[in-house]
Write a structure and sequence with these properties.
Elements: E1 10-16, E2 24-28, E3 31-37, H1 42-63, H2 67-77, E4 85-89, E5 97-100, E6 105-109, H3 117-130, H4 138-144, H5 150-161
Parallel strand pairs: 1-3, 4-6
Antiparallel strand pairs: 2-3, 5-6
Helix pairs in contact: 2-3, 3-4, 3-5
C-alpha cells in the first residue's frame, strides 16, 4: 500500500462514513492514522496514504536539520543579517524559500529536506540576502554570490523544479 516509501512508522487507515471529501492524517504513538471518506475507492485510499506518507516523511527529515543554527552560521560567514525567525513549512509548492524583510521571517519548503546540505545552505543564503535587498537586482546577486556553490545550487534547484 505504501509504494516506494520507506515506511518509518505503521499506517492505519480509518474509513469514516461521515467524511464526504476530505482526508486527514496524524501521528499517534508512531502510527500514522489516515482518516478518509468511507466511500473512497482502493485507488483513492492508496493516493491518500501516499500523499500523507510523503508529507510526514518530509516533515520528519526537516525536523532533523537545525535551520536556526545553520542560518546563524551562514549569516556570520557571509556577513549577512540573522533572521528574526527561520522555519520549515509544508505549504510552499512553487518556491524553495520565502522571506518577509519587514519582520525578518524566513520560511523554507520542507520539500528540500532531503536535498544536499549545500543546496539548503544556498537557499538560506538567498533568503538572508533578501533581508538586505528585497529584489533580485545586481546588489542582491552580489550578496548571494558570496556563497561559493551558488551557481551549482541554482542548477540543482532548476533541475528539481522541472521534475
Amino acid at each position: 500500500m505504501t509504494g516506494s516509501h520507506a515506511v518509518p512508522f505503521e499506517v492505519r487507515v480509518i474509513r469514516s462514513p461521515k467524511r464526504r471529501k476530505t482526508a486527514e492524517a496524524r501521528l499517534v504513538d508512531s502510527v500514522l492514522e489516515v482518516r478518509i471518506p468511507g466511500r473512497s475507492s482502493v485507488a483513492e485510499e492508496r493516493d491518500f496514504v501516499e500523499h500523507f506518507l510523503a508529507r510526514f516523511e518530509r516533515t520528519s527529515a526537516a525536523s532533523s536539520i537545525d535551520v536556526e543554527r545553520r542560518a546563524a552560521q551562514l549569516a556570520r560567514r557571509y556577513d549577512l543579517p540573522r533572521p528574526a525567525s527561520i522555519r520549515w513549512v509544508d505549504n510552499q509548492r512553487h518556491r524553495w524559500g520565502s522571506c518577509t524583510p519587514a519582520d525578518g521571517a524566513i520560511r523554507l519548503s520542507n520539500r528540500m529536506a532531503r536535498f544536499p546540505p549545500w543546496v539548503v545552505d544556498y537557499v538560506i543564503v538567498h533568503e538572508l540576502a533578501h533581508l538586505v535587498e528585497a529584489d533580485h537586482g545586481p546588489a542582491f546577486r552580489a550578496l548571494v554570490d558570496r556563497y561559493p556553490q551558488a551557481e551549482r545550487a541554482r542548477g540543482y534547484l532548476m533541475a528539481k523544479s522541472g521534475s
